[in-house]
Amino acid sequence: PDVIIEAQFDDNDAEHGQDHLQDMLTDDIKKLSLDTGEKGKAAGVTGVHRTKQDDGPKVNDPRLLPDEFLQRTAKVVYILEKKHSRAATGFIKLLADRNSELFKRCAMFSPVDHRVPRVYVPLADCPPDFVSKPEAYSQTLFICRIVDWKEDSNFASGQLCKSLGQAGEIEPESEGILTEYGVDFSDFSPEVLECLPQNLPWVISPGELAKRRDLR
């Protein structure tokens, strides 16, 4: 820390002039410098030994360090099973760099679910007037399916499957969620419909009511 010296002088000091005051200050500073230097050397000798003890082991081979000094790291080497449907709901927009070759071939798909990466989709999959009027589709939900993700790319590659409709409406939002989670919501086949009662109106028989718990 800086050392601040306050000098006091009276009329006698003033008679000797400013030179006398400067000489006094110089002598005081020299004494302080010598005192702090000697103390610093003494503290340095003991401080070195204490610091080496507190720092812990310093070795070049990490295998020799205790576990509490190590940070475990790993990397994904193989995908055993693809649990995600690779489908996502989101919006499409033009790429920012209009002068790039990629701008002429692809659009950017931004998923609503931020756990899914952004995806390059071919312009051929987009609506015909998307390039000329991209703002018209700023609130339109699309379904995109990821088909590839190269190791050297920040974005995946995919294909637009269909347009769901306006964002915020119940039917497009519901269809998007069902598609993302791989739920089959297509119409039942004729074979399944034939299992239902054909004689309408149909009512539950008294025998069925007697052996069932009524939750109506």
Question: How are the secondary structure elements laid out?
Answer:
Elements lengths: L10 H6 L1 H37 L32 E7 L7 H5 E6 L7 E4 L17 E9 L7 E11 L3 H11 L9 H4 L12 H6 L5
Parallel strand pairs: 3-5
Antiparallel strand pairs: 1-2, 1-4, 2-3, 4-5
Structural notes for this entry:
The structure is a single chain. It is built from six helices and five strands; from the N terminus they run ααβαββββααα. By secondary structure, the chain is α+β, with helices and mostly antiparallel strands. The protein has a domain at 87-181: OB fold (Dihydrolipoamide Acetyltransferase, E2P) (Beta Barrel), CATH 2.40.50.700. A five-stranded mixed barrel has the order 1-2-3-5-4. The chain is elongated, with a radius of gyration of 39 Å. It starts with 10 loop residues before the first helix and ends in a 5-residue tail after the last helix. The model is unreliable at 45-53 (pLDDT under 50). It comes from Quiscalus mexicanus. GO terms for molecular function: 3'-5'-RNA exonuclease activity; metal ion binding; poly(U) RNA binding. One of its GO terms (cellular component) is P-body. Residues 51-61 have a biased composition (Basic and acidic residues). It is found in: Cytoplasm.
